[in-house]
Structures are given as structure tokens and as C-alpha cells.
């Protein structure tokens, strides 16, 4: 047995009961997996079991799942898990500012005072408007955390100006980088969006309306929507094609898939990636689109400003404004020089700033600092 085998590995536990198969390639899975892969942490995710987890066999091989006993109270189930396991956890990784999170922080630190808590806020920019009463609510819990992080530069700056704790800039990243730069000539006249199609947050009807307004000014362009579709939105799509049958050959609903090769191929073919969300923290689709050379058009979000280098590699429009989005789609789709030039540039920008290996290096350094007395 080697010396390394005898040394106790750092036990890193991500407690997130909602973890399903798709989370494993998002921050929920990629942070513990990268800490395991790059820094030899003993990493696992604690969750309820939600069906099969196909990515465990290849994409995140070596990452472990632990399954919670399920009642009708996820806060209590997490507390029960920590009651039995807190002393064996070196780093507890949690998400969101919520009472559930705070309850877990307090029980963990009570049972393991020397343990470290990493809280990933995963918050939208709405938090910038939080008042003193909000800080008074979160103060006791946040001061027990070893690392608190936010995903966008704008939110980090605001919170560091307002809160008497350090908020680290730990953004979201891409699962894998193509070995070669995607060449512009490989791309097609396609606009792509990826996500949970039809949810209130994603506001996909804005994109459908904008494309209907713009398509006659966009020669031979297609729109693709990739992801699960809500039942309510199925009817929206049906009505859309009834009202505009000429779009049946231009708008494609691709559905949901776990096939990463297929998803990456759709990114690779798209010239434009469009997100119409009402609100976001830092959506994982942004670095995925950027690393495949897509020009990004998004509702005006802090994360959109980050991923486009303050609109160097993309454009933004006011939330819900289909007319302005249509005008941007027409302008960008007809500017071949702009699309061609930004294709390699945004790929390099993503490689430099939005790879999990580099992001988790920042996290590892922050976690390696000793617990203050």
C-alpha cells in the first residue's frame, strides 16, 4: 500500500437532494467531480434517488452518490444525514440562501466545529437589492461558512461592497472543451436555445415571437429548441404552427436527450445561441455555447455580460422585448463578418475563463486556507 493510500483524503460532500442525472454535468456534479479528479478529494453527492444516472459510468466516473432516506421533509432528511455523518465530512458543499441551507449549516458546524462549509449562492442579480433586514437574516449562517461564492462579477462586487464577509467569484463552467477549435465553416444558419423549454423562467415564447417577426429578413435561417418541453408549452407550439404554418420547416423542437455528443453537435452547428430568460444566476448553457463558438444573444442579465465579455462576443435585449430581439436577430444574422470573427474569439475567451478545471483551482485554493480561530 502506497503512502498516498495511507493518507486520509479530504472528504467533500455535496448535499443536494434534488440531484437528477442532468445535474451531474452541471455545477452540482462538476464541482465535486473536479475536486475528486484534480485534487484527489473523496467526493460524493448526497441526494434522493431520481431514476438512473447514466453519466456515472463515463462522464463523471469516480464520483460517488449517497442516497438519502426519504420522508416528506427534505430539510429533516438532510439533518438526519448530517447527524450521523457530520464528523466524517471535511467540507460540506451547499447551495442557495434558504432556511433549509441554514439549518444544515448549523447542525453541521455544531457537530463538526472544525469542518468547512462551502456555500455556492447560485443567486440571481436580484440579490443586489437586498436590504439590511435580509443581511440580518443571513448573517449568522454566512459567518459560519469557510467559502461563500457567487457566479457573476456584478453580484460579487455588489455583495463585497455591502456585506462584511468575503464573497468569492466562482462562476460556472463547461463540462468538456472540444480538443480542436470549432471552425466557422462547420456552422449552419441556425439559432439554438437549450434548456427546460416552456418554463416561466426561460420565457421561450419571446424567442418564438421574435423569430416569427424576423424570419423573412433572415435568408435560410432555422431555429432549434433543445430540451424537455412542458405540457403547457406543447399547446403554445401547436398554436404557433397553426398561426404560422410557413415556419414548420424553419422551427424545430428537438426534445430532451442525455446524449452529450448529440448536444455538442447542435452547439457546434449553431451560429447563434439565444437565451430569453426572465432571470438567471449563471446558466451552464452559456459556457457550453461559447466553447463551441456561438455568438450569444441574451436577455439583459449579469451573466450575459460576463459570458460575452461585456457584449464583445454577443448582444443583449430587455427582458421580454420580442421586437428588439427580432431586430438584433436580423442585424446579426446578416453580418457574416461579425459572426465569423467572433467564432474563434469567444471560444478562446471561454477556454481562458469558463473551464471547470480553472474554476475549481480557485475554489481549492480558498478551501485550503485554515479555518480562522
List the helices and strands and how they pair.
Blueprint: H1 3-6, E1 11-15, H2 27-39, E2 42-47, E3 64-67, H3 74-85, E4 91-95, H4 99-111, E5 116-120, H5 132-142, E6 147-150, H6 153-162, E7 167-169, E8 188-194, H7 205-214, E9 222-226, H8 231-243, E10 251-255, H9 260-269, E11 270-275, H10 285-291, E12 295-299, H11 302-307, E13 314-317, H12 322-333, H13 336-353, H14 356-368
Parallel strand pairs: 1-2, 1-4, 2-3, 4-5, 5-6, 6-7, 8-9, 8-11, 9-10, 11-12, 12-13
Helix pairs in contact: 2-14, 3-4, 7-12
Number of strands: 13
Number of domains: 2
Query: Separation of termini?
Result: 36 Å
Structural class: alpha/beta
CATH class division of the largest domain: Alpha Beta
**Could you say what the CATH architecture of the largest domain is?**
3-Layer(aba) Sandwich
Strand content: 15-25%
The strand line-up of the biggest sheet is: 3-2-1-4-5-6-7
Mean pLDDT: 94
The profile of the biggest β sheet is: 7 strands, parallel
Helix content: 40-55%
Q: In terms of quaternary structure, what is this?
A: single chain
**What fold name stands as the CATH topology of the largest domain?**
Rossmann fold
Give the low-pLDDT segments.
1-6
What string, H for helix and E for strand, traces the elements in order?
A: HEHEEHEHEHEHEEHEHEHEHEHEHHH
Task: Supply the number of helical segments.
Answer: 14
Instruction: Choose one word for the global shape.
Output: globular
Amino acid at each position: 500500500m502506497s503512502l498516498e493510500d495511507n493518507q486520509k483524503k479530504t472528504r467533500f460532500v455535496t448535499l443536494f437532494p434534488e440531484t437528477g442525472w442532468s445535474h451531474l454535468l452541471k455545477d452540482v456534479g462538476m464541482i465535486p467531480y473536479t475536486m475528486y479528479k484534480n485534487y484527489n478529494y473523496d467526493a460524493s453527492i448526497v441526494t434522493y434517488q431520481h431514476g438512473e444516472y447514466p453519466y456515472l459510468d463515463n462522464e463523471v466516473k469516480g464520483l460517488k452518490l449517497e442516497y438519502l432516506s426519504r420522508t416528506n421533509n427534505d430539510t429533516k432528511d438532510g439533518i438526519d444525514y448530517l447527524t450521523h455523518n457530520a464528523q466524517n465530512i471535511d467540507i460540506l458543499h451547499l447551495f442557495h440562501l434558504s432556511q433549509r441551507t441554514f439549518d444544515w449549516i448549523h447542525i453541521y458546524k455544531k457537530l463538526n466545529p472544525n469542518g468547512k462549509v462551502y456555500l455556492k449562492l447560485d443567486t440571481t442579480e436580484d440579490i443586489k437589492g437586498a436590504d439590511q433586514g435580509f443581511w440580518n437574516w443571513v448573517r449568522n449562517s454566512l459567518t459560519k461558512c469557510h467559502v461563500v461564492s457567487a457566479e457573476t462579477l456584478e453580484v460579487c462586487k455588489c455583495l463585497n461592497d455591502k456585506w462584511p464577509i468575503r464573497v468569492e467569484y466562482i462562476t460556472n463552467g463547461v463540462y468538456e472543451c472540444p480538443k480542436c477549435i470549432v471552425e466557422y465553416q462547420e456552422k449552419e444558419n441556425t439559432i439554438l436555445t437549450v434548456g427546460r423549454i416552456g418554463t416561466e423562467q426561460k420565457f421561450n415564447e419571446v424567442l418564438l415571437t421574435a423569430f416569427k417577426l424576423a424570419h423573412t429578413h433572415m435568408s435560410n435561417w432555422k431555429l432549434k429548441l433543445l430540451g424537455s418541453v412542458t405540457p403547457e408549452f406543447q399547446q403554445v407550439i401547436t398554436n404557433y404552427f397553426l398561426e404560422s404554418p410557413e415556419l414548420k420547416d424553419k422551427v424545430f423542437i428537438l426534445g430532451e436527450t442525455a446524449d452529450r455528443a448529440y448536444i455538442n453537435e447542435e452547439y457546434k452547428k449553431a451560429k447563434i445561441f439565444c437565451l430569453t430568460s426572465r432571470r438567471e444566476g449563471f446558466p451552464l448553457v452559456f459556457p457550453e455555447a461559447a466553447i463551441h463558438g456561438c455568438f450569444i444573444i441574451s436577455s439583459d442579465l449579469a451573466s450575459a455580460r460576463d459570458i460575452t465579455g461585456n457584449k464583445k462576443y454577443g448582444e443583449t435585449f430587455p427582458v421580454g422585448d420580442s421586437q428588439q430581439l427580432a431586430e438584433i436577430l436580423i442585424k446579426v444574422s446578416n453580418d457574416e463578418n461579425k459572426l465569423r470573427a467572433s467564432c474563434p474569439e469567444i471560444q478562446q475567451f471561454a477556454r481562458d475563463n469558463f473551464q471547470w478545471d480553472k474554476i475549481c483551482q480557485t475554489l481549492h485554493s480558498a478551501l485550503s486556507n485554515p479555518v480562522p480561530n
